[in-house]
Amino acid sequence: MRLLDAQAIVIHEFTPDKIPRYAILSHTWRDGEVSFQEMKDFSPEQLRGKPGYRKILACCNQALSLGIHYVWIDTCCIDKTSSAELSEAINSMFRWYVTASACFACLDDYSDGPTPSELIAPVQVTFFGYDWISLGTRESLSSIVSCITGIPEDMLHGRNFRMATIAARMSWAANRRTTRPEDMAYCLLGLFDVSMPLLYGEGEGAFIRLQEEIMKSSVDQSIFAWGMNPEYTGDYDDTACFPIPGGSKMNDWYIRRGTVSKPPPELHRRIFSLDPFAHS
User: Fold this and answer.
1) Which residue numbers delimit the Heterokaryon incompatibility domain (predicted)?
2) How far is residue 220's CA from residue 105's CA, in Å, rounded to a whole number?
């Protein structure tokens, strides 16, 4: 595992039995991020003008203020020119969030936020604005986070997320948008304790593969039913309905136990709403 020395701003590599305490950054990639190759080959003076480098320095300063001397940042700690390394990193990501001493969630705008794994896995999550002023912790903002994501508040306070059904866990990513459709499936791997190879180019087929991997180790039948057109107007019952994580067509699909249809609006709002203010 590669970690960035927060004091020297130098990347070090550690074997699994020698990993020191580290903080981890949750953020949305923007133009001007610093890659692993740039961190290795360029001087601080050459990188100082990049927005991503300023974010790295802010993350490092925050870690040092907590007495943590290393940080993990995906943009510069993964060599993305290696498909094997990228695949290993994405499959290991959940574990790295679990073992981090702190997670800093940088909310530089309102277009997207942390993945469900990034909200649930770390022992500690603190949200920061673009100026790196603290907005609060996962616990202090749990009612807002729960309203937006559908993750139950008690699970944001430490209750075992595995108590939730597969369909419910999928629904926690319903509002997410990803640049590549495959990433919608890949960001959910840790929530279901599964691993699978990365195949960029397969599109929404990645989500099908994710379900197949889940079915190999789970008897939870909430995974089986697929939804159809959201304009469907057939009969409904009181079965719990959940939105499927979406990007493009996936946003129009729903999962529910034992049947296939669109949930009635009032039931959809009551269970897991796509409208973050529907619970207020």
Assistant:
1) 22-111
2) 31
Task: Extract the tokens encoding 42.
Answer: 């360029």
Contact status, residue 224 vs residue 260, Cβ threshold 8 Å: no
* pLDDT tens by residue, 9-28: 999 999 999 999 999 999 98
| Side-chain-side CA neighbours of residue 11 (13 Å) | 23
How far apart CA 115 and CA 172 sit, in angstroms, is: 9
What is the Cα–Cα distance from 75 to 3, expressed in whole angstroms? 12
Residues β-bridged to residue 79: none
* Strand locations in 22-69 (E): 23-26
CB distance 192 to 169 below 8 Å = yes
Burial of 85 (0-12, 13-18, 19+ CB in 10 A): middle
| pTM score | 0.76
Question: Does residue 156 lie in a domain region?
Answer: no
- Three-class SS string for 219-258? CCHHHCCCCCCCCCCCCCCCCCEEECCCCHHHHHCEEECC
- pLDDT beneath 50: ranges in the chain: 225-280
pLDDT at 100: 97
b/e map 191-207, b = 16+ CB within 10 Å = bbebebebeeeeebebb
Q: Are residues 135 and 170 in the same domain?
A: no
Task: Please give the Cα distance from 250 to 248 (Å, whole number).
Answer: 6
What share of the chain has pLDDT > 90, as a percent?
50
Residues 102 and 135 in one domain: yes
Give phi and psi for 4, each to the nearest 5. -100, 125
